[in-house]
Write a structure and sequence with these properties.
150 residues
Length: 150
Amino acid sequence: MAGDTQDPSVWPLPKFHFSVNMNGQVVSFQEVSGLDIEAQIIEYRAGDSKIFSTVKMPGIQKFGNVTFKKGIFVHDNRFWDWFNKIKMNTIARTPLTISLLDQTGASTMVWTLANAWPTKITGTDLKSDGNEVAVESIEVAHEGLTIANA
């Protein structure tokens, strides 16, 4: 309606302004996806139950892998170096923090991945007739996802 003014604090935040902190260092990414958690379902039915169906109960929590995409820069091999630290049952695990930022650059929502480590790196595709930026992606497994409002 004309003349209506809405409080700016009730608008949802845009998803294009975010930062990622890895080992105390801010790393620039083009895209972050896979921030999800689910509770696996346990189905149970007692033999003497009068209802001929199962009861569904929450089970173990399961966290999906998170994928980060970024442009490739000259002499920036930090993900390959991190991935190359994988040895038999040994890997450098690190917490990762993803922050959704407001218009002033302050954190409004923060996702923290516990004990994250790389499971897959995908290099860019190469095209002789393309004019896109070279983008690589890294997939990270983790052992827990916590969400906090700043």
